[in-house]
Amino acid sequence: MKEFYPKLGIGFLCRLFGKTRHAYYDGLWRKENSLIKEDIILQEVRTIRRDLPQVGTRKLHYMLQNQLKSHAISFGRDYLFDLLAAHQLLIRKRKRKVITTDSRHWMRKYSNLIKGMVINRPEQVWVSDITYIRLTHQWGYLSLITDAYSRKIMGYSFRQDLSAEGCIDALKMALHNRLYHHPLIHHSDRGSQYCSQNYVDLLLKNNIAISMTENGNPYENALAERVNGIIKKEFNLYTSALGFEQTKRQVNASILSYNQLRPHASCDYLTPHQAHLKSEQLKKRWKKYNKKFNDKKTMV
């Protein structure tokens, strides 16, 4: 025998579970608003990552705060971690050590002048280093000169060889971009490129003091290596399937975005370009995250 089940209305079901119709519809509205909020946040994340493709979640959280004020949207860091994880948008950390320095040469090596120094103004110390980018059938070598105060890349050169010419080109660009003429120290490792006569002469000609690492310890030039890692990791430049010239254009665009768009926690969340125009001690907003939190958030 066919049984008859009456059509149950929303009101009846709500009463059955001890809820009101208003509570039911209020829940639907909240869910809808939550989905709209998520969609807006994800759109803004994708917009930022067009220029900063590998920027981490903590910096995204900072950058999104002002952008989403007009939408009356606010959210915490953990919420953003969970949202990006759900959409597979977290960035996996990559640890890699590359050695491009040959300090076993006869040329003069200089003392470390910046050990223990407090950096409190732009163009007080420039740090230099060379890193490499793996291309399809060759290597590309990127020479960078970074201001230690603002983290701004002052000069760079991308070449197909490890000769001193790349470092000299980067130094010439940095000198051209220099805004201040206070006493300046150039700090580097003891690689042959930085000890070469032409490079040293260019520094001395511009009254720049020369400082070098002393013990081969990477921490003596940690800031330069840190910037190398940011450029390669956050702008997908560990390897390139493009040709040399196209990769060179990608390097140019990446450094422009880095200088103009990427905030630094160590520079009061200013971009390098903004920080370079300051003259006071910048607040450092980075901190060590506890192990439990880092274990939970293994990606950034």
Automatic annotation (TrEMBL):
Gene Ontology biological process: DNA integration
PROSITE patterns on file: INTEGRASE
MF-aspect GO terms: nucleic acid binding
Domain Integrase catalytic: 118-280
SUPFAM superfamilies, A to Z: Ribonuclease H-like (SSF53098)
InterPro entries, sorted: Integrase_cat-core, RNaseH-like_sf, RNaseH_sf, Transpos_IS3, Transposase_IS3/IS150/IS904
Pfam families noted in UniProt: rve (PF00665)
Name of the protein in question: DDE domain protein
Top-level taxon: Bacteria
